[in-house]
C-alpha cells in the first residue's frame, strides 16, 4: 500500500543525476577565483550521486557503495567513491581538483610560460634604467598573461576492523600543484663587465612557478577496550619541488652587454615523518584521562639552486657558500595530558598540560653575500630557529542552580626560543661564542577567565565571559642576526646587527610583553515558535609593553541574527555583523644619535624623533535568506540569498614633531607625503542568488538559478603597478582592481532514483 | 550469536515506529539510510539505544517524554551531557579523545547540535554544507569568509573540519594537528622547510601574519606591506622614511620630487615584498634577506 511504499522509500538509498548548463556574462578572474567560472560563456553543470548495497532496508546485509561527483563541468570538480562492508572494512577513493585564478590583467614583457622556470627579456628591451620612461618599443613588448595555479589531489584509503578491539586505517594522498603565483623578483643591476657590485635594485613581478608534488601517508592502528583506547599512528608528508630555482634576466644594467641572468630560489623538497600515540582512559565513566605523544622529524637536503659566482653579475656571493646543501633537520615533539572529572552535575573539573618543541638541529655557518642593491655586504649565519611551548590549564564549571553556571579557568604558558649551534659552523667574520640569534628569548603568560551562563527561561539564554592575560617576555637585545648596519644601536657601531637590526626597545608584537583583556557576551531569545533572535558581541584590548613597535591593538564585533518562520515551509533569516579592529604603533625615525639637517627632499629630523602609525579595519556584513517550499501545489521550492559585505582598511601616519625641508616642504607636501593616510582600501561586494526547483514528477526536477555578484574594489596597491605610476625601478604589470559585475544563469535537470 | 545486534536494537524499533512512521513530521525512518540503520551490523543501535527505554513514553506518549530528548519539539530537550553521553557510549577514542573539557563541550554543545543522525546526508559531514552548521554559532567567521581574500571555503574545497577537530584537540583553537604550523603544512608543505634562512615568526605561527578565515588584504594577510612588516621590523628602509600617504603613490596625490625617487618601491605596490619576496624562508646561500 501507499504507506508501505512511502516507508520503503524513506529507507532506500537516494541517488540522483544533475546535468545542465550555466552562462556567465563577464570575464573575471576574481569572480571565478575558486569556482572556475573565470571567463564569460557557457559551462556545464554535472553532479551525481549513486548509492547502493544490501545494507539498506530491513535485511541483514552490511555492504554499501557510493559514487559521487560534483562540479564536473568546472575546474573545482571532484569525484568520490566508497565501498564498505560495515563492521568489517571500507575502501574509499577520491579525486579533487581546484584551479586558483589569481589574475587576468597581469602584463609582462618577459618571455616564458606561466608555470615555467625561465623568464627572459625580448631582444633590445634592456637596459631599462627608469621604468617610468619606457620607449614605445618597450611598451609594445608587454603582453597579457593569465596567472593561475592548479591543485590535483588523489586519495586512496581503507579501514579494516580486525576485531572488536582493533582496527586499522590508512590514507594515501597525492597532491600535484602546477601553475604559478605572482611574486617580486628583485635583481641587482648588471655591470659593463664582470666585476664588483653595482648599486641599484630592480623589481620584476613574475609568475613564480609551482611545480610541486606532495605525497601524504596517514596510517593508524586503533585499540578500544572496556575503559581505555589508544591510537598508534604514522604521518608522513613528502614534498617534492621539481624546480630548483627560477632564472630571470634583470632589466636594468649600467652599460652594454646582455642582461645578466639571475636565479630566484624555490622551496626545497623536504620530508616529514611523525609517530603519534594518543589514548584515553575512563576511570569511572565520569573521570577520564586523555593524552598524546608525537615525535616528528623534518629533513631537507636539496642542493642549493643559486648564482654561485662571486660578483653581482655572476652572483651575489662574496665568498663561496660554505655548504652545497643544508642537511637540515628539525625534530618536533609533543606531549599532552588532560584529566577531566564530571562526577557530579554541580561541579566539573579539568586539568591539562601540553608541551611542544621545535628543535632545529641544523648546523649554522656564516654566509657572505650581497643584498640585491649590490652595496650592502652581510655576513649572515643561517638561523636554525628552535622554540618550545609549555602550557598548563586548570578549569572548573560550577552549577549555581538549575539555571546558572559559572566557569573559572586559569592558563599558564611558557615559551622559549633559541638557536642551536648559532654561527659555530665557521666562516668570516667569526661571531663571538654564545652569540644569540633571538631577541625575545622567551615569555611567561598567565591567563584567568570567568564565564557566566544563565538560562533565564526555556526561551532565553545569556552568556558573558571575561579573560585577562598578562605576558611577561624576556629579551636579549644584544642578539644578532646579521652583522650589517648599526641601525642606531649603541655603542658606536662597533657591535652590529643588535636587536635583530631593530632599535633597542623595539619588540615584535607577537613576542612583546603584553596585557590582554577580552570580554564576550551573547543572548539568544526564542520569542515564539516562529521567531528567534541572537545578539552577541566581543571586545578585546591588547597593550604591549614596548618602547617602539605595536603599542596597542583593539578589536570589537557585534552580531545580530534573526530567523522567522513566516508560514509552513517558509522561513526567512537575516543577519548583520560588524567587525572592527585596529592597532597603533610607533618608532624612532633616525638611525643616528644626532639630528639630521633638512635637505630639499627630506625634512629635518630632531634627535629621538618618533612617528606613529594607526591601522583601522572596519567590516560590515549583512545577509538575508529566504526559503519557501510548497509553492504551486507543493511542486516549487524557492531559495533566495542576498549578501552585502563592505571591508575597509585604512592607515594613518603621524610624525610626532613639526619640521620642514630646506625649501619649506612639510611631510604632508605632495612631494613627500610621508605622513597622512593613503586612500582607504575598500572592497564592497553584493551577492544575490535565487534558485527555484520545480518537481516535474516524483523522479524529475528542473532547477533554475540566477546569480548576480558585484565587487567594487578600490585598492591603491594597483596604482603603483601601472605604467607611468611605478617606482622607477619597478617594472609595471598593469594589474587592475579586480572589480566585476557578473550575471550567471543556470538551468539543470535532476533525475532522482532509488 | 555475536553477530546479532548487541542491544537487541533493531528488533525493538517497532515499539517506536508504530507511531513514528513515514507520516511523522520529521522523516525519522530515513535513519535506515545511514550507518546507524544497518541492521546486519552487530553494533547498530536501535531507537532505544539512543533515546533510552522510554517505557513511560511508549505507554503514554502524549503525556510522558522519552528518556532522552535530542531536539526541541513537544518536550524539553535533555541537557547536553545526557545527549552527548548517548553518542559517546559507542563513539569513543580516536579524534574524540579530547571531547571532555573541549571548548565545544564547555560551551554546552552536544553531538546532535551539529550532527543529524536521522538525515541521510548529515550537513556537517558534507563539505559543501558544513559551514552552514558551523556558522550557526561562529558568526564572526561567517563574516570573515565574505571578505575579498579567503580560502576556497564557499566552493566547499577547504572547510572548517579541514583545519579544526571540532571534537576537541590538544592544539590551539582545536586545530587538527599539534600546532598551527603543522596544521597549515598539511596543505602548504612548501612552507615547511627547514630553510637555510628561516623567518622566525613563520616557524612559530602562520597566524602571526595571516588571517586564515579571510582578510581585506590578499593573500589573507592581517594587514598590508609595508605596515605588516613594520610590526616587527624597523630597519633602515622605514625608520628614515616613515610610510604615510605616499603608500598610495601618485593616486594619493604624490608628485615627482627633485631626485625622481617618487614613488618609493618600499612603500607602494608590493612594498617590502617586492624585494624580500621569499618571506617564508630561503634556501639560497644569498637569501639571508629573503631576496632569493
Task: Explain the overall architecture.
The complex is a heterodimer of chains A (754) and B (292). With 754 residues, chain A is mostly beta strands. In chain A, 3% of the residues lie in helices and 57% in strands. Chain A has 3 helices and 36 strands. In chain A, a hairpin with a 3-residue loop joins strand 12 and strand 13 (228-241). The two termini of chain A are 18 Å apart. With 292 residues, chain B is mainly alpha-helical. Helices cover 25% and strands 0% of the residues of chain B. Chain B has 14 helices and no strands. The radius of gyration of chain B is 27 Å and the shape is elongated. The N and C termini of chain B lie far apart (68 Å). At the A-B interface, helix 1, strand 5, strand 10, strand 11 and strand 12 of A face helix 9, helix 12 and helix 14 of B.
Key words describing this protein structure:
heterodimer, A: 754 residues, 36 strands, B: 292 residues, mainly alpha, 14 helices, disordered N terminus
Element-level helix/strand string of chain B? HHHHHHHHHHHHHH
What structural category characterises the helix and strand content of chain B? mainly alpha
Helix/strand-derived category of chain A reads mainly beta
- How many strand elements of chain B? 0
Radius of gyration of chain A: 31 Å
Tell me the β content of chain B: under 5%
CA-based shape of chain A = globular
Poorly predicted parts of chain B: 1-8
Number of H/I helices of chain A: 3
Outline type of chain B:
elongated
Low-confidence stretches of chain A: 485-495
Largest interface: A-B, 197 and 126 residues
Amino acid at each position: 500500500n501507499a504507506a508501505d511504499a512511502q516507508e520503503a522509500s524513506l529507507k532506500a538509498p537516494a541517488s540522483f543525476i544533475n546535468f545542465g548548463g550555466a552562462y556567465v556574462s563577464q570575464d573575471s578572474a576574481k569572480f571565478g577565483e575558486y569556482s572556475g567560472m573565470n571567463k564569460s560563456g557557457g559551462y556545464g553543470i554535472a553532479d551525481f550521486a549513486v548509492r547502493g548495497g544490501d545494507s539498506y532496508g530491513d535485511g541483514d546485509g552490511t555492504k554499501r557503495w557510493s559514487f559521487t561527483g560534483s562540479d564536473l563541468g568546472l575546474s573545482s570538480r571532484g569525484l568520490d567513491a566508497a565501498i564498505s562492508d560495515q563492521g568489517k572494512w571500507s575502501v574509499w577513493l577520491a579525486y579533487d581538483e581546484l584551479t586558483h585564478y589569481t589574475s587576468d590583467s597581469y602584463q609582462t614583457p618577459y618571455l616564458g610560460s606561466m608555470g615555467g622556470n625561465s623568464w627572459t627579456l625580448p631582444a633590445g628591451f634592456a637596459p631599462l634604467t627608469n621604468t617610468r620612461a619606457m620607449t614605445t618599443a618597450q611598451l609594445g613588448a608587454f603582453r597579457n598573461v593569465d596567472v593561475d595555479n592548479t591543485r590535483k589531489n588523489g586519495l586512496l584509503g581503507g579501514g579494516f576492523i580486525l576485531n572488536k578491539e582493533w582496527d586499522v586505517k590508512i590514507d594515501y594522498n597525492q597532491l600535484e600543484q602546477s601553475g604559478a603565483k605572482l611574486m617580486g623578483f628583485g635583481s641587482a643591476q648588471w655591470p659593463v663587465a664582470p666585476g664588483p657590485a653595482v648599486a641599484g635594485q630592480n623589481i620584476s613581478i613574475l609568475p613564480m612557478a609551482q611545480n610541486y608534488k606532495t605525497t601524504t601517508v596517514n596510517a593508524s592502528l586503533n585499540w578500544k577496550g572496556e575503559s581505555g583506547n589508544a591510537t598508534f599512528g604514522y604521518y608522513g608528508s613528502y614534498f617534492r619541488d621539481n624546480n630548483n630555482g627560477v632564472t630571470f634576466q634583470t632589466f636594468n644594467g649600467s652599460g652594454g652587454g646582455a642582461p645578466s641572468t639571475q636565479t630566484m630560489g624555490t622551496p626545497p623538497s623536504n620530508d616529514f615523518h611523525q609517530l603519534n600515540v594518543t589514548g584515553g582512559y575512563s576511570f569511572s565513566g565520569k573521570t577520564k584521562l586523555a593524552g598524546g605523544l608525537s615525535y616528528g622529524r623534518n629533513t631537507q637536503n636539496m642542493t642549493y639552486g643559486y648564482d654561485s659566482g662571486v660578483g653581482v653579475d655572476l652572483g651575489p656571493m662574496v665568498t663561496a657558500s660554505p655548504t652545497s646543501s643544508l642537511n637540515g633537520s628539525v625534530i618536533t615533539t609533543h606531549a599532552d595530558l588532560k584529566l577531566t572529572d564530571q562526577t557530579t552535575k554541580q561541579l566539573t573539573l579539568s586539568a591539562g598540560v601540553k608541551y611542544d618543541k621545535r628543535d632545529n638541529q641544523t648546523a649554522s655557518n656564516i654566509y657572505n653575500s650581497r643584498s640585491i642593491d649590490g652595496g650592502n655586504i652581510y655576513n649572515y649565519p643561517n638561523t636554525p630557529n628552535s622554540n618550545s611551548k609549555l602550557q598548563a590549564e586548570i578549569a572548573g564549571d560550577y552549577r549555581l542552580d538549575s539555571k546558572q553556571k559559572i566557569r573559572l579557568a586559569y592558563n599558564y604558558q611558557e615559551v622559549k626560543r633559541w638557536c642551536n649551534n648559532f654561527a659555530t659552523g665557521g666562516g668570516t667574520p667569526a661571531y663571538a661564542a654564545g652569540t644569540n640569534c633571538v631577541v625575545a628569548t622567551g615569555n611567561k603568560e598567565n591567563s584567568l577567565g570567568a564565564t557566566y551562563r544563565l538560562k533565564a527561561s526555556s526561551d532565553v539564554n545569556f552568556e558573558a565571559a571575561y579573560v585577562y592575560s598578562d605576558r611577561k617576555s624576556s629579551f636579549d637585545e644584544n642578539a644578532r642576526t646579521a652583522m650589517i648596519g648599526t641601525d642606531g644601536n649603541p655603542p658606536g657601531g662597533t657591535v652590529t646587527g643588535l636587536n635583530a637590526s631593530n632599535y633597542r626597545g623595539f619588540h615584535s608584537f607577537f613576542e612583546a610583553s603584553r596585557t590582554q583583556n577580552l570580554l564576550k557576551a551573547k543572548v539568544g531569545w526564542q520569542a515564539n515558535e516562529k521567531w528567534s533572535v541572537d545578539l552577541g558581541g566581543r571586545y578585546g584590548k591588547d597593550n604591549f609593553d614596548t618602547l617602539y613597535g605595536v603599542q596597542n591593538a583593539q578589536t570589537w564585533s557585534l552580531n545580530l541574527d534573526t530567523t522567522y518562520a513566516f508560514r509552513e515551509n517558509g522561513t526567512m533569516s537575516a543577519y548583520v555583523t560588524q567587525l572592527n579592529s585596529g592597532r597603533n604603533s610607533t618608532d624612532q625615525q633616525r638611525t643616528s644619535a644626532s639630528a639630521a639637517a633638512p635637505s630639499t627632499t627630506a625634512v629635518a629630523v630632531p634627535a629621538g624623533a618618533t612617528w606613529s602609525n594607526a591601522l583601522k579595519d572596519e567590516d560590515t556584513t549583512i545577509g538575508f535568506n529566504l526559503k519557501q517550499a510548497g509553492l504551486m501545489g507543493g511542486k516549487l521550492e524557492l531559495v533566495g540569498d542576498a549578501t552585502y559585505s563592505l571591508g575597509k582598511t585604512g592607515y594613518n601616519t603621524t610624525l610626532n614633531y613639526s619640521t620642514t625641508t630646506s625649501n619649506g616642504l612639510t611631510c604632508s607636501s605632495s612631494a613627500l607625503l610621508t605622513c597622512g593616510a593613503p586612500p582607504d582600501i575598500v572592497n564592497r561586494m553584493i551577492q544575490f542568488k535565487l534558485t527555484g526547483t520545480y518537481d516535474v514528477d516524483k523522479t524529475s526536477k528542473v532547477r533554475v538559478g540566477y546569480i548576480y555578484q558585484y565587487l567594487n574594489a578600490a585598492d591603491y596597491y594597483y596604482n603603483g603597478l601601472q605604467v607611468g605610476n611605478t617606482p622607477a625601478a619597478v617594472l609595471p604589470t598593469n594589474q587592475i582592481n579586480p572589480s566585476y559585475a557578473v550575471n550567471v544563469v543556470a538551468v539543470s535537470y535532476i533525475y532522482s532514483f532509488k | 550469536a555475536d553477530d546479532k545486534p548487541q542491544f537487541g536494537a533493531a528488533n525493538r524499533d517497532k515499539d517506536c515506529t508504530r507511531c513514528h512512521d513515514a507520516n511523522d513530521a520529521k522523516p525519522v525512518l530515513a535513519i535506515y539510510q545511514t550507518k546507524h540503520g544497518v541492521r546486519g551490523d552487530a553494533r547498530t543501535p536501535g531507537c532505544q539505544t539512543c533515546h533510552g527505554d522510554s517505557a513511560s513514553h511508549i505507554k503514554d506518549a502524549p503525556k510522558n517524554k522519552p528518556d532522552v530528548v535530542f531536539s526541541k519539539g513537544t518536550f524539553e530537550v535533555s541537557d547536553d551531557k545526557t545527549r552527548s553521553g548517548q553518542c559517546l557510549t559507542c563513539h569513543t577514542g580516536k579524534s574524540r579523545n579530547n571531547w571532555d573539557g573541549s571548548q565545544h563541550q564547555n560551551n554546552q554543545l552536544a553531538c546532535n547540535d551539529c550532527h543529524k543522525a536521522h538525515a541521510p546526508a548529515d550537513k556537517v559531514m558534507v563539505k559543501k554544507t558544513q559551514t552552514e552548521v558551523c556558522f550557526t554559532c561562529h558568526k564572526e567567521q561567517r563574516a570573515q569568509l565574505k571578505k575579498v581574500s579567503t580560502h576556497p571555503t564557499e566552493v566547499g574545497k577547504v572547510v572548517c573540519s579541514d583545519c579544526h577537530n571540532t571534537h576537541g584537540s590538544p592544539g590551539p583553537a582545536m586545530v587538527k594537528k599539534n600546532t598551527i604550523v603543522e596544521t597549515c603544512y598539511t596543505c602548504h608543505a612548501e612552507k615547511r622547510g627547514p630553510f637555510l634562512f628561516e623567518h622566525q615568526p613563520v616557524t612559530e605561527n602562520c597566524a602571526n601574519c595571516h588571517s586564515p578565515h579571510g582578510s581585506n588584504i590578499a593573500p589573507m594577510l592581517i594587514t598590508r606591506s609595508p605596515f605588516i612588516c613594520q610590526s616587527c621590523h624597523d630597519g633602515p628602509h622605514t625608520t628614515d622614511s616613515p610610510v604615510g600617504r605616499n603608500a598610495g603613490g601618485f593616486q594619493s596625490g604624490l608628485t615627482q620630487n627633485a631626485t625622481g625617487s617618487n614613488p618609493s618601491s618600499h612603500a607602494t605596490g608590493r612594498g617590502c615584498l617586492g624585494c624580500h619576496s621569499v618571506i617564508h624562508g630561503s634556501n639560497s646561500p644569498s637569501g639571508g634577506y629573503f631576496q632569493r
